[in-house]
Amino acid sequence: MLTPKRYSHYDIKKMTTSFKEKLGQGGFGDVYKGKLPDGRLVAVKVLSKLNGNGEEFINEVASIGRTSHVNIVALLGYCFERSKRALIYEFMPNGSLDKFIYDRHLMQGATHLLWQNLYHIAIGIARGLEYLHFGCNTRILHLDIKPHNILLDEDFNPKISDFGLSRLCTRKESIVSMLEARGTIGFIAPEVFCRNFGGVSHKSDVYSYGMMILEMVGGRKNVDVRVNRISEIYFPDWVYKHLEKDRDLGLNGIMTAEEDEKARKMVLVSLWCIQTDPSQRPSIGKVLEMLEGSISAIEVPPKPLLFSPPRSSTESTTIL
């Protein structure tokens, strides 16, 4: 594991050619394309919004700086110069997952994300989470798993990024204390914003993972006001009803029996992941076992208690 290198703000300006090429925008700042002195391309996140003493910056350096895994984006360096703060990551040529999954049948280049690609991405993200939850000396809870925070390399291998909301806890610790909700509406586990559902733990990431995989499968936001029928607005509810009645899911792009099996497997696993009670959700290791095993071994999960949110919840918003 390589220790991230510290750079000055002058270095950051130089490697980004004075912030010439903007790659994207996140909750805490803008991301620019850059190049290290050795020629490696990088993505430089310049933090503009700092909570208190810059908690999200400290979280990111402390958590991702401890990691080394093929499905976790590598932090190569950082800048900490008074109020000037930046994070330098390996460059991911295909950007974030979100631009490939929504309305993918309308997009140019959609052929890149065949069902085998989606299945491969789902497994890669699960492996990355398993490493964070059980493979590090200090357990890392990401707490903001969503398509925007999954980056894709040149071969569409997924890497988990953006650890600004993460929490570190000991391997033995199963529940973490939190004074405020954190995450993105539509992906936040119920216990994160209401303690009556249980404590925040690695199962909270499992919930977010399940919601994300459902969006990958549906090729749409889980809550979609563009559809004509009210019964189809909330995709997890719609897909559960179709599974209950053993109907064809009618998912876009499925051509073979093997693709149909992969899609159904992803749906079943996702519905287990979004169970309202954290104790009913599988660990991420069990998720991998189900995804890589036989579909006949996966039971249809019970219907979660919290379904069909009000229409006012349709916008994804980050809660700090």
UniProtKB/TrEMBL annotation:
It is a single-pass type I membrane protein. CDD domains: STKc_IRAK. The keyword Glycoprotein applies. SMART domains: S_TKc (SM00220). Signal peptide: none annotated. GO terms for cellular component: membrane. Residues 17-306 form the Protein kinase domain. InterPro entries: Kinase-like_dom_sf, LRK10/LRL21-25-like, Prot_kinase_dom, Protein_kinase_ATP_BS, Ser/Thr_kinase_AS. GO terms for molecular function: ATP binding; protein serine/threonine kinase activity. Transmembrane segments: none annotated. Keywords: ATP-binding, Glycoprotein, Kinase, Membrane, Nucleotide-binding, Serine/threonine-protein kinase, Signal, Transferase, Transmembrane, Transmembrane helix. ATP binds at residue 45. It holds the Pfam family Pkinase. It is found in: Membrane. Belongs to the protein kinase superfamily. This is Protein kinase domain. It comes from Dillenia turbinata.
